[in-house]
Request: fold
Amino acid sequence: MDSIEKLKENARRAWATFGPTEMLTASVAPRLVRLAGVTAGARVLDVGCGTGVAALTAARLGATVTGIDLTPELVAQARANASLMGLGVDLREADAEALPFEDASFDIVLSQFAHMFAPRPEVATAEMLRVLKPGGTIAFSTWPPEHFVGAMFALVAKYAPPGPPGVPPSQLWGDPHVVRERLGGAVKNVHFARDVMRVQVLSVQHHRLLMERNIGPMTKLVEALGANAAPRLAELRAEFEALIALYFEDNHVRQDYLLTRAVKV
Ligand SMILES: C[S@@+](CC[C@H](N)C(=O)[O-])C[C@H]1O[C@@H](n2cnc3c(N)ncnc32)[C@H](O)[C@@H]1O
Reply:
């Protein structure tokens, strides 16, 4: 298995615990779906759909929706969510870097906090644009490096063993300059917006625990340090709580994010 395949195998295992945090991402999914201009009858792909929050928000509007995700446990939960809502959505296990669809299959390609975790941005971008029809809309939400979640991923990188060379930090997808460069001349009408996900928690410690239990890369790091390097784990937790404290106010943590929308030429 090459280093990229190994990264994906690890990601597939790591994200398996994400399910309970669907309540947080469900709260902002309508924002992305609206920005993308989803309407009844539109053919929509949700890349990295997780438990299906954006896919099902789009399907509820009458769109014909497909959702893919790397992690089988989340796809199973997405199917259960679709069934609970009585919505017919095609939900499958697949990789953002190898989308199992014909060219120009979709009117809208979405990704909420997900395609940013594919290790090769140029490959995921090319795939998302390949399956989008000319004149179709690509829209995604990402975590900027200068706000809480981006800083959390930088903290994970500081304590984790180095990844394979050439894999950029996921949070660069939250920088509009980088986004413009990655989308390049394949799109026009690039539009950015910003919004905030407010996570209601009782304390900084509660938020640390929530992230440790459910956010795959943090979960795996804490497991590894807990097994091999307890003093490093204590250091990580102290630094993590100090970071959370910067964003904690009135029993919520402020998680700012970037939204991007563009039209394929
Ligand atoms: C933060 S979760 C977001 C899930 C969902 N979009 C939401 O808003 O709740 C990140 C998702 O990206 C998925 N993911 C990571 N790498 C992926 C890849 N290469 N291809 C497809 N999905 C991937 C994970 O399995 C996980 O479901």
In short: The chain has a mean pLDDT of 97.
